[in-house]
Amino acid sequence: MNIFDPLFLSRTQKSKAMFERASRRLPGGVAGNGKFLRPYPIYVGQAQGGEFLDVDGNRYVDLLMGAGVHILGHSPEVVMSAVEGQLRKGAQYYMAAEAEVLLAEKICYLMPHVEMVRFVNTGSEATQMALRAARAYRKRDKIAKFEGNFHGQHEAVLISTLGAEGEADAPSPRIDSAGVPASTRQGVLVLPYNDAGRAAALIEAHADELGAVILEPVSAFGLGVAAAEPDFLQAVRDVTAKHGIPLIFDEIVTNFRLGLGGATEYFGVTPDLVCLGKIVGGGFAIGGYGGRREIMDQVVTPRTGLWNLSEQIFQSGCFSGNPISMMAGLAVLTELEKGQVHPYINRIAERLQIGLTEIGERLGFPILVNRAASCFQVHFGVERIRNKRDQLCADKKIADLFHYGLRAHGVMASSHPLFISAAHTDQHVGVVLEAAERVLEQMRDADTSTSLSASERG
After folding, report:
1. Overall pTM surpassing 0.85 (yes/no)
2. Which of 35, 157, 298, 401 could tie 30 with a disulfide, CB 3.0–4.6 Å?
3. Rounded to whole angstroms, how far apart are CA atoms 320 and 92?
């Protein structure tokens, strides 16, 4: 038992019962690892705006927001209206429909560097297909990724995200999941994040082998919201352009959150291909990849007659471009175009960043709140996080305890990136800061080094 167990357990008995029931049919009681939280997940009953109710009837301020999906909040009227209208026309056709054309046109208008886009169903699928397209275009098999960057769950990118091996300036590929063949390492060059000189030198040394370089302009799930430094991002762009290596920005998290033009607008650096997801689906399943017409048309556009296996990639899906996701995404982007959402959510996130930092310092818990626009994450035990080696020095046990305390006090948070939506209010900020202060006071008054259970101490 730790200091927050009594309160959490007393509030969530129906979630506990649901977890026990679910565990008989769902591994871990959930449909994905990210949903699993100790001692058991909170099961949601319904969500609206910036809040949700769990199956016990407890109300929470939601800071996870569907892992960054709901930039307008849960179930916004503009999205619900668009989806309800489309449902009456059909949910899935497999055949082409106007909805996918409309969303593609909107994306390419808002992100001019995305000249063509192809829709898929998940972020993982988007990065997988972007890498396939880049390798087909470049006619090289090896890819380069950055230590600590997360690009989904396909085998080529489950490398050196969760941990680190080798020297900091020349990382060795580390497999992050059981079931990934050891041979996968041979196809991946791992680069140091935010090290302009070493990253450029390694790309230069391996240029003839590389079919693509992929990176997160803001590394959210792997590094805890660590932004790329301008000189680093420009150095990677320069060396890849010099050798004609497609540069891919994985913007599954940041597309339309950093701004209407995404990371290119935010940082002033233009990639060859971009991966899209989360926000662009309006709360429904989606992924996308796109960029330079030269690449997309050459290797993605189907050709008539015999399939040219040496040139074109294969990518299709029954639900790709389904009209529900398309119309929901179009509704969200149309709302963002009005220009009111981004300044508002960035201000709310900044208030939380400042407030959490102040409370931590006052109560003897120096807190690092990494923030990029309206995305942030709370860390303990480190002064800065620029790369994976920095992130591994953070005190994860204290962070987990802090976030568990927030959940016990009605704020949905975990040691994952947290997100602000247009439905969050100044009142929500007050609730979060009050809960954070109470949690840190309890952690201060207890000996947090001994308040962790044996399992949490590892």
Report:
1. yes
2. 35
3. 9
